[in-house]
């Protein structure tokens, strides 16, 4: 039975591409590994897959009894059904260390960089395995996406170095032009349901016993979202009503470099504790806030303590 | 304030040497890191430190408010006081993934190899940092100790390769002779109290809600322990009485390649579930069993489910 390389719930470009790259690298190291995902690609990811001729991984929803490599997450809250009965052989990630545990030694590569793609680029080099051109293109886009074209505070020199090397392998001459093309696809909201938009890049967190959902939409200009903002607010109220303490939705303007945050919360004062901005539940503008991982989650975790 | 590189409770040679090596490597990567330990070196570790002119790390028992790199463990049960209020910046380890979590991205190098020293050797190479001669000698001994001179089932090709390279750096011509010298020191029981012997290499585990202690003494000949066996049995009964479900003590004969296991348990039937050997609490001989991590802990974890 093939082992699975598997990204988190509501897969983004990094978690899909990382599954493809990890399966490729582990296979070339003599293991039998297939990429998998917990859902279909977003429009942004579709664009990247098509651009480089890659195939979307199989969608799975239960991993009981399976051997798996986790990519781009280590939280049980982002895992599929059956993880407790799965055998986690490895983790490649760039987030905080979550609550996944194993009963046998594993191989974990977790680095404080902007993207799992950057860690994988270094793993390929470490093991002396050549990166296929198409996968290099995918990893390049994943890094541009996760680091918001190097503007996110999560971006490190290692990410920039990886993009430079991957662009050569993939034959991409103008990295930033490719990034803008990709973010324009990401910005498009036409034809998507409110639910699709809220869950496009959404994660649940356990914050001191409270279930807190945080979604993010990144656009090249916030005005793109004017016509859907009321619908998004209604939609996160529904998500909150499913038993969450709070749901926050970051509307990130990647050119202005900041986020408007919509919210529905049992206690909106956590927003003031986290960001110093008073609100009774009305949206707030958070200048400079672009990274859920580095700027939003740690602040809320402190606020919930 | 200097960050700490810190090994597990009841430090063995690997966790002391790994703290020294990690602090050296991270310092040379531009971070301010000092080695630390949760206790004094064992006679084996003393031998290794003296052999290569290394200094025992400072002993600490509270890490609240500190920046730390964990080496050789990722379990809260093996952590010092205050870990919940510490900032874990990194993990270098070769065990199963424990229940430590972080609130920020970290750097974790966890590999399924025989020794943290092997992971660190590869990290030095990855970052292009030269390994100081004395630290190379210490890492070499840590690998020989953890892999029981390559006899343990935890030993991998990566461990053997690391020893070969480290021996050259440290100027050690006969690796196996050094290993036997070290294991003879480890085998000595004269002058040590029963408590010292039980805790020389001892770890507590949470097995399905039960606190289970597992210690291990490795000797070049089991007959060395004949005169202390009754005393050890009495001592583990005291440790068990402090609120544990079971305490097991492995007396490992590294030449015969097997372990006699002493025990005090609320339910000795877990031994039969784990190893297929019936006992009412009397010691059992487990042929081929040399590794707590790979052979004993996983079997008991299944037995406790």
Notable characteristics:
globular, homodimer, alpha/beta, 305 residues, 6-stranded parallel beta sheet, 5-stranded mixed beta sheet
Would you mind describing this structure in some detail?
The first copy, chain A, has helices at residues 13-28, 43-52, 116-126, 133-146, 157-170, 175-187, 194-199, 229-240, 269-275, 292-303; strands at residues 3-9, 33-38, 58-59, 67-71, 87-93, 107-110, 202-207, 210-219, 246-253, 258-265, 284-287. By secondary structure, the first copy, chain A, is of the alpha/beta class. In chain A, helix 1 (13-28) runs antiparallel to helix 4. The mean pLDDT of chain A is 95. The interface between A and B is medium-sized, with 29 and 29 residues. Strand 6 (107-110) of chain A pairs antiparallel with strand 6 of chain B, so a sheet runs across the interface.
- The chain-level structural class of chain A is alpha/beta
Helix content of chain A: 25-40%
Number of strands of chain A: 11
Major sheet: arrangement of strands of chain A: 3-2-1-4-5-6
Q: What is the helix/strand order of chain A?
A: EHEHEEEEHHHHHEEHEEHEH
Mean pLDDT of chain A: 95
Q: Give the CA-CA distance, first to last residue of chain A.
A: 43 Å
Largest interface: A-B, 29 and 29 residues
């Amino acid at each position: 039975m093939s082992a699975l390389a598997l990204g988190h719930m509501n897969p983004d470009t990094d978690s899909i591409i990382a599954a493809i790259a990890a399966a490729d690298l582990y296979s070339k190291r003599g293991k039998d590994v297939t990429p998998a995902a917990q859902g279909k690609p977003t429009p942004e990811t579709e664009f990247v897959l098509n651009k480089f001729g890659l195939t979307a991984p199989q969608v799975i929803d239960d991993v009981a009894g399976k051997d798996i490599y986790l990519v781009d997450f280590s939280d049980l809250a982002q895992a599929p059904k059956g993880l407790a009965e799965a055998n986690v052989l490895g983790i490649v990630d760039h987030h905080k260390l979550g609550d996944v545990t194993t009963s046998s030694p594993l191989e974990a590569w977790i680095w404080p960089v902007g993207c799992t793609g950057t860690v994988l680029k270094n793993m390929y080099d470490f093991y002396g395995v050549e990166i296929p051109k198409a996968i290099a293109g995918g990893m390049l886009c994943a890094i541009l996406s996760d680091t918001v074209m190097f503007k996110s505070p999560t971006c490190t020199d290692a990410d920039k170095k990886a993009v430079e090397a991957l662009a050569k392998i993939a034959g991409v001459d103008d990295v930033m032009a490719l990034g803008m093309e990709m973010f324009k696809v990401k910005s498009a909201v036409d034809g998507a349901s409110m639910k699709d938009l809220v869950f496009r890049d959404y994660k649940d967190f356990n914050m001191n016993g409270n279930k807190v959902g945080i979604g993010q939409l990144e656009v090249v200009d916030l005005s793109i979202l004017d016509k859907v903002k009321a619908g998004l607010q209604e939609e996160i109220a529904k998500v909150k009503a499913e038993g969450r303490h709070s749901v926050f939705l970051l509307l990130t303007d990647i050119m202005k470099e900041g986020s408007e945050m919509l919210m529905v919360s049992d206690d909106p004062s956590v927003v003031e504790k986290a960001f110093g901005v008073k609100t009774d539940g009305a949206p707030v503008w958070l200048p400079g806030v672009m990274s859920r991982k580095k700027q939003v989650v740690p602040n809320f975790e402190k606020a919930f303590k």
